[in-house]
Design goal:
Largest sheet: 4 strands, mixed
Number of strands: 4
Distance between the termini: 39 Å
Structural class: alpha+beta
Bound molecules: FE2/S2 (inorganic) cluster
Strand content: 5-15%
Order of helices and strands: HHHHHEHHEEEH
Number of helices: 8
Shape: elongated
Strand order of the largest sheet: 2-1-3-4
Length: 184
């Protein structure tokens, strides 16, 4: 990371080193490229996408690092990160459960399916279970309305889901998790 005249703080080398350590060399290099462009702060969303793409979410240390390296106020970085729904500020679970709340799914009872997921998992939309296994999310129409109500778990589609099927769906993924990590 180059030192620049705009970094007036005496401890910039330490700040830069800590910031680089919180990201990846590829992301740091990308931020460097952005810094060479006019209005580098206009690339903030793209930078955050890359950070989330690597880490799965935008953690505090990563947001601070982006602010420092891109030279954008930290309040603006966290403001952008929390404004857009596609950015997540918490770690994502091993399995992402997306319940479609599009019209067809809603009409076919998606709300009751959501309620059962919330009850079984003890979490609400946008949250992750304490054991890190599941994150519950709402999604718009996923394009398989004929199967409504639809639940995606990762890339897998579950169609015509009823509330009573929810425990067995969860058990299936917990079983998969146990098989992949016997000690977990
Ligand atoms: S509305 Fe749910 S798949 Fe289309």
């Amino acid at each position: 990371m180059n030192q620049r005249s705009c970094h007036a703080t005496d401890n910039w080398p330490e700040v830069a080193a800590a910031s680089c350590a919180a990201l990846t060399p590829e992301i740091v290099a990308f931020i460097e490229q952005c810094r060479q462009l006019p209005r580098s702060e206009s690339h903030l969303i793209e930078v955050l996408h890359r950070v989330q793409g690597h880490f799965g979410y935008l953690g505090g240390p990563q947001l601070d690092a982006v602010a420092q390296l891109l030279q954008v106020p930290a309040a603006k970085v966290s403001g952008v990160a929390s404004f857009y729904h596609f950015f997540r500020l918490e770690p994502v679970g091993r399995f992402r459960i997306c319940v479609c709340l599009g019209t067809a799914c809603y009409v076919k009872g998606a709300e009751a399916v959501v309620a059962r997921f919330e009850e079984e998992l003890g979490i609400r939309f946008g949250e992750t279970t304490k054991d890190g296994q599941f994150t519950l999310e709402a999604s718009r129409c996923v394009g398989t309305c004929g199967l409504a109500p639809v639940v995606m778990v990762g890339e897998e589609v579950h169609g015509a889901v009823t509330p009573d099927q929810v425990p067995s769906i969860l058990e299936r993924y917990l079983k998969q998790s146990r098989t992949e990590s016997p000690s977990a």
